Amino acid sequence: xxxxxxxxxxxxxxxxxxxxxxxxxxxxxxxxxxxxxxxxxxxxxxxxxxxxxxxxxxxxxxxxxxxxxxxxxxxxxx
Length: 78
Known about the structure:
Blueprint: E1 3-7, E2 10-13, E3 24-29, E4 32-38, E5 41-47, H1 51-63, H2 65-76
Antiparallel strand pairs: 1-2, 2-3, 3-4, 4-5
């Protein structure tokens, strides 16, 4: 599970088996996890995060989308 970056209490990462899915990022904090598609940025699923926190995380993903896409392409060779 390569970590792309950490911001505040959140870890942004991929699973190594994510290659065959559309481009996305996973986010975790403690026992909570979410998955965001990147094109366009939108929530795919969330477990344990309250809505205001999902909005906060989505803004982080949008703000760092280029960095996440570059990490995806570098890791998965696209």
